[in-house]
Amino acid sequence: MSHAPVHVTYETDLRARAYPLVPGAVEGGQELRQRPEIAALLGALGHSDWDCAEGWTLVALPDTARQPVALGAFGPSNRPGWVNVNMLGVHPGSRGQGYGTRLHAHLLARAAERFVMHGGATEAENQPMRRIFEKHGSRHDATQLSFRSSPLDRFHQSVHAARAVRKARKQRGSGCLQTDDMPG
C-alpha cells in the first residue's frame, strides 16, 4: 500500500470570539481573480486553475509594497450555518511573517458576519497551519487517514486476482469459472 496521507480536522465556533479585519485587504469575486497580479500569485501558489465559486469571496493581503502576497477565500458550506475557508496560501518569499495568521483571522471575521461555524482541515505535518487553527480558537475534531492505492498496488492486486481465477479454473478442471463460483 502506498503512503497514507494524514489530515487533521478542526471546528471553529465563530461566535466565541472576535477576529480582526486586516486593513488594506482586497476582496472580490471573479473580477478580482482575473487581475494579472492575482493570477500570477495563484500560479506561484500552485493554484492557477482555481476559480471563485458562486457565493464565495476571494481575499488578497498585500505586503508593504502593496503587492498581493497571501490569498484565501470563504463561502457557504453544504451544512447550514457553516462556512468553508480555503487558505490558498502565502507567497513562498513572504512566509514566516504572519500573513497566513492575519489572512485566516480576516477570513474568519468576514465569515462570522454570515455564518456561525467553520470546519477546516490540513495535512497533519503542516505545523504552521495547525498553529493558525489553534491561535484562532479552533478545536481539533478528528484525525483522518486517507488510503489510496498506487498504480503499482493496483497492478499487484490484478495479478493476484488473475492467479486466483486461474487456480480456481484449474481446480474445477473445466477451464471455465461460473459466476456463482466467484467470491464476494
Automatic annotation (TrEMBL):
Top-level taxon: Bacteria
UniProt key word Transferase: yes
CDD domains, A to Z: NAT_SF (cd04301)
Transmembrane segments: none
GO molecular function (one): acyltransferase activity, transferring groups other than amino-acyl groups
Organism encoding this protein: Deinococcus humi
Residue ranges constituting the N-acetyltransferase domain according to the UniProt record: 16-172
InterPro entries the record matches: Acyl_CoA_acyltransferase, GNAT_dom
Protein name, per record: GNAT superfamily N-acetyltransferase
One Pfam family recorded for the sequence: Acetyltransf_1
Key words of the record: Transferase
